[in-house]
Every structure is written in C-alpha cells, then in structure tokens.
Design goal:
This protein has 361 residues and is mainly α. It has 15 helices and no strands. The longest helix is centred in the middle third of the chain and has 42 residues, at 189-230. It is globular. Residues 1-11, 132-151 and 357-361 have low confidence and may be disordered.
Length: 361
Amino acid sequence: MSDDQGTVRAPHPGASPVNVAILAIAVLFALGWSAPVAVPLTLAVLLSILLSPPVLWLSARRVPPPVAAAFVVAVALAAVAAVLVAVWGPALEWLRSAPGLLGGIEQQLLSIEGEVRELREATRRIERAAGLDDTAASGGGLSLQAPLSALSEAPMLAAQAGSVIVLLYLLLAAGDEFLRKVVRLVPSFEDKRRAVSAWREIERQVARYLATLLGLNALLGAATSLALWLLGVPNPLLWGVLVGLLHFAPYAGAVASVAVLSLVGLSVAASWWDALLVPAAYWAIAVLVGQLLAPIVLARRLSLSPVVVFLSLLLFGWLWGVAGMLMAVPIAVSVRIGCERIEGLAWVARLLEIEPAPGDP
C-alpha cells in the first residue's frame, strides 16, 4: 500500500535494519575508497542542481542547452574569479607579514602567561597568609608554542577543480537526458513516476538549501568585513570571505571562524583584551545573522533532524575531509528523499526526519 507520494508503507523483507546497515557500510566503504572520483562528481552534481534554473530559463528562450550551460558556467567562474582577485592581494600581504604577525601573537600569549602567573602567585601568597598552603609551589611555566604549518596540495586541488568544471558543464548541457536514460531502466510505470518525483524533490530542496545558505553566508561575510574594518583590522575583506566560506559547513564553520579570528586579533591588537574584540564582534554578527538559528531553520525546512545534520558533518568529514563537510547536508537530504520513495525504506526516512513540534499538523 502506498501514500500519495508513492511511499510504500508495508515492510519489505529485503529492507530489514540488518540489511540496510550492511548496505550502508558497504556504500560508505566505497565512497571512502573512491574519494578522488566521488568528491568531484558529487560536487559537480550539487552545483548543477544550483545552476540548472538559469540554464532552463535560457533554454526556454531557444538558447541551445550547450550554449546556455557554457554561459552559466562562465558567469559562475567569473564571479568566483572576481572574489579571488579581490582577496588575492590581501592574502599575499598577510603571507608576507606572517612572521611578524606570529611574533605579535607570541607576545600576546606571553603577556597572558605573565598575568596568569601573577594571579597564581597572588593566590598562593593569600593561601600562605591564611595558613592554607603548606607545600612548596611547583615550578613550570606554561608551554605556549603555536606552530602553524601550511599544507600545500595545489596540484591535486587544481586537478579536482578542473574535473568539477568539466563535469558541471556536461551535466548542465545534458539537462534531463541522463535522468531519462535512468528512468528507461526502471521496469514499471509506477517506479518510473516515483524515481522522477524523488529526483525533482531532491533538486527543489537542495537548490533551496544551497541558495539560502549562499545568501546567509554572503551577508555574514560582508558584515564581518565591515566590523573588522571598523575595528582597524588589516585586510578585513580577506577575513570576511574566509568566514563566509567556512560557514558552508554548519557548526564547524563557526568554531573555525572563532579560532581564525582569535589568532588575527592576537596578531594585531595592542593587548589581549583588545584582541578579544575581533572574535567577539564576529560572534555578535553571527548571532544576529542567524548562526545559531540558521542550521536549525535550514534543517527544519529540509525536514532533517539537527542530530542528523551534525552526524552527517562528522561522517562525511571523516570520509572526504573539508569537502565532505561542505556537502554533508545536501547528501543527507538526498538520502532522506530517496528513502521516502524506495519500497521498504520509508522507516529510514522517518529516522532522518525532524520530529514535529507540539501542535504541528
């Protein structure tokens, strides 16, 4: 028996929890083993979902799909190049001044160490005066070493970026051709309808998620750049762009942004109290823009449990690193929608869904 969306409610003997767990482990192993191919392909598919509306719009106006795809990809690359050009100069300037900035960070940390040591000695003097400390103070200062290593994987990244661009163009130029070929392989008409419905729903929700996230991150990055400029932090545009990029990974992006901006504050501020203003300003903006609410709101719009969002970040971050964390949520919502429409797997989709709030229909 099926509902209006084609989801079969009756249990299926081949979709038992044990079989699903075995299949999931096999798929995860395959994804980890095939990461050099799977990562560019998955990223290209997600970008094609995001960029397909303008291609369809141009195609509806009698622009040939290959030409429309080439134009949209060119515009997207031009936008990315414009951002890179804007931050390239500040990035080089920061790299040239990195040794001096690291020295400033060390001085700030040493001043914190000195204040902590003075506070500790004052506490011990009070304890001795009160007769509460009969043991000698053990020596040993704080070991404050913050080595920063730059890992360069430029050739591999360039090759993967080229693969993503080529795959993106091919997917956009093909349009629904690949989907039609897949549908031909499905035996029954009901299964064909269910497959098309699932893919259209994945396109709609993933495109909405990516567009919403892009807008939120652009706003957050612009506001952060403005705040850092008002605080007199050098290269505010660079840090604003970095914050916007980091926030494509929910939760983890906020932690990484605080860590980066804390180091930036320590490198440029006169005192460590002033240094705290830099991450504090970012955090205030992140709260106002919706950093605390955006993951929950997006997850609710996608009908994904926040727990599933967090676990997806951990899982795909472990499998594919930073790229996996950036793609974790769209992959999770695709799995949920697919399970809704596969016979016997509706229970998996219900596990991934967010629980309805009290009073919701």
